[in-house]
Amino acid sequence: MGHFQYLVLMACCLAVTAPLELLGARVYRQPARLARAVLPVAVAFLAWDAIAIAAGVWTYNARYISGLRLPFRIPVEELVFFLVVPVCAILTYGCVQAMLARGRNRRPARRQSR
Amino acid sequence: MTGLGYTVPAVAAVLAVCAWELLFLRTGLFRRPAYWLSMLIVFGFQIPVDGWLTKLSAPVVEYSPAQVTGLRWPWDIPVEDFLFGFALVTAALLLWERQGSGRDSGHGGNGRKGNQGEREIDRAAAGDGVGRVRRGGVRL
User: Fold this and answer.
1) A69 part of contact set with chain B, CB < 8 Å
2) Is A59 in the B-facing interface, judged by CB distances under 8 Å?
3) How far is B3 from chain A (nearest CA, A)?
4) Per-residue pLDDT averaged across A92-111, rounded?
5) B95 vs A41: CB contact, 8 Å cut-off?
6) Which of A14, B23, B84, B127 has the maximum number of C-beta atoms within 10 A of its C-beta?
7) How many folded domains does chain A comprise?
8) What is the pLDDT of residues B90-101, one digit of tens each?
9) Is residue A24 part of a domain?
10) Where are the beta strands (DSSP E) in chain B?
């Protein structure tokens, strides 16, 4: 894997969470809503990343990244990370919501039981 | 451990995200069991993913020892990463929630206007303990 370690790891995250869409998450089916949730957060975290890189708070091992850099020396992998991780989290949340709703609907006396 | 250039912003990010929700967005996300359950699952998966990125035997990301507490657990994950992850994931979920569900868009649209009604119902539901019923669906 070498230089693509980080990117392959991100691809694995997307692959593992992809079935959640079919289990009721309904996230990829709302691309505009997804973009409006993920993109502003990604911009904020890229800014944090740029500052941390410039200040030497963290560095990336050249052996395990592609070498493609965005402005402010941000590895392209970081942009991918800030997109993939929130998408995975929203898929998880959507799926959990769907499953809890299904479980709740199966119990007829749910209103009274609370 | 002199600059804490990671620790301090990580704590600040968590506080900022919580304040954003509690003072401005008020989506009610923190009152939903689905959120806390999801966070538990997300943190469960953060351990192998982040663990791979930060393992000291072959680190993808390396942290300046001067900028972190040096506490690494589990494996070699800097504890700051969990604050970072919480802020990142929660911020995205808040924006996702703020827009309401596209499924309900036929019942008054999404965005802030629809959210106001949702908030009122959330408040009402919290008061009478009936549950978070919203636009004919159950809010989890």
Assistant:
1) no
2) yes
3) 9
4) 85
5) yes
6) B84
7) 1
8) 999 999 999 986
9) yes
10) 61-63, 133-134, 137-138
Number of Cβ atoms within 10 Å of the Cβ of B118:
22
Inside any domain, residue A90 = yes
pLDDT of B66 over the 80 cut: yes
Q: Which residues of B touch A100 (CB under 8 A)?
A: 33-34, 37, 140
**Residue A113: inside a domain:** no
The model scores a pTM over 0.95: no
Nearest to B102 by CA among A98, A21, A32: A32
Percent of chain B whose predicted confidence (pLDDT) is above 70? 69
**Domain assignment present for A34:** yes
Tell me the chain A residues in contact with residue B6 when contact means C-beta distances shorter than 8 Å.
52, 57-58
Residue spans per domain, chain B = 7-98, 108-140
Segment A103-112 mean pLDDT:
71
Say what the ipTM of the complex is: 0.92
User: Of the candidates B38, B62, B140, which has its C-beta nearest A61's C-beta?
Assistant: B62
Take residue B29 and report the two structure tokens written for it: 């996300």
CB B77 within 8 A of CB B4: no
Considering only CA atoms, which of B94, B136, B37 is closest in space to residue A33? B94
Q: What is the pLDDT of residues A43-57, one digit of tens each?
A: 999 999 999 999 999
